[in-house]
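User: Okay, second chain of the day. Same drill as before: sequence in, structure tokens out.
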Amino acid sequence: MTESGPQSLESYLQRRFDPVLEGEVPPVPDEAHVGWWREHHQARGGSASSLVEALAQFQIPIAEHASTSEAYARAIRGGQAIMDPQAAEAIFAAPGAVEWRVVDHAAGGLPVAQFGDRRDFERAFRALGNRCEPVPVGPNVHALYVGGLPNPVRLRAAQSDFLAEGRGTDAWPEEMRRRRAADATAFHDRLILLHPAPYAGLSASRVGLGEDEWLEASMGLRLEHEFTHHATHRLLGGYRLHVHDEVLADLMGFTAALGRFEASLFLEGLGIGKDGARADARVLTYTADLDPNRLPELIDLLRSVANSVESLSVAFVGADSAERVRRVLRLASYDLPTLAAGGVRASDLDASPTAERHVT
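Assistant: Same drill. Structure tokens below.
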């Protein structure tokens, strides 16, 4: 909902990304924060305890107005060390089912944390993705890409190393500005949170796999889905809750995990049936601002988009990771009406783009 009222369908459909320049696309090097996470994993392992040590947000209780509290201001925005921090066992319901690692990707690697217990996933979702606020987490939500997460632990370590070189505290503010200008992740993290569950509520029989096979494939699908949000965020300058972003991410996820993209599976995963969207449909998460009277038109458009993307999906099957990301970034430059009209061919995804990319 905008200040002037519901968003028109015409405005909603303007969502697109700028193209990228050939030669400035994946594979790209890791961002600044990833090296620190690799070192932390090597030194402390991928346990719940090492995750809590790295992210001070877990020390802030989940509560209304937590993000504006004095404790949050001191620990997260001010970077002050927390005295007597809680252990992982006091934070998580099942700390033994929490694990994390750094996953390599053509868009740059990221730390990926998996939470076996749903309660712990929701705890992390709120602490890391919503500044410790008690936001609702939909029952069908099992993954989250977090960008721009302040990391006071890394900030203090960087300042300590800087001062150990014999440089004065008065020079540190300028050094912080320099590092931020060079890399948006100098003091902020990007990471992915996962919880194991069948993707989008789809059954194993519907996908044509056994239960265990589908659960494993779902985790791979979610991972590639979230890495696609990372790719558009880092290389195209943004991502948001929008069906355009979901089309791109599901294309990448399904083709990576199943070796195919089926229009019917994609639509069913969005909660769209022959009579429209279900009351609990995932598509409603991405259309909260849209005029509800225009939703049926959008759904009709999405049916055409899904069919077009199914025909384009052959370009993503069997290609290496870097080429897949290059192609999805090119596909992102086309809006939904163009996709629905069949205005994109697979050969277009190998064409040289004309506009420059945005790196964050």
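Residues 41 and 274 are 47 Å apart (CA to CA).

User: Thanks, on to the next one.
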